[in-house]
Design brief:
This protein is mainly β. Helices cover about 0% and strands about 40% of the residues. It is built from no helices and six strands.
Length: about 70
C-alpha cells in the first residue's frame, strides 16, 4: 500500500489498468504482483510505501523487462 506525497506518478500494475496518481492519492497493490512507478513531473514525485512481507520471503525480485 502506498500514498503519493508530492507530484504525479504513473503506476503500472500487472493485469490492471495503469493508474495516474497525484499528491494525496493512495493505492493498493496485491501481494506478489509485479508493478512499476514512473514520475510524470513536473517536479519530483514522492511516494510513501508500506510493505507486508512474510519473514521467509524476499521484499523484491528483479525482473528483466527485456
Amino acid at each position: 500500500m502506498g500514498y503519493i506525497l508530492a507530484g504525479t506518478v504513473e503506476m503500472r500494475i500487472h493485469d490492471a489498468e495503469t493508474l495516474h496518481l497525484e499528491a494525496g492519492s493512495g493505492f493498493l497493490i496485491p501481494p506478489g504482483t509485479p508493478h512499476n512507478a514512473r514520475d510524470l513531473g513536473p517536479g519530483t514525485g514522492r511516494m510513501l510505501s508500506t510493505y507486508l512481507v512474510a519473514p521467509d520471503q524476499a521484499l523484491a525480485t528483479f525482473v528483466d523487462p527485456g
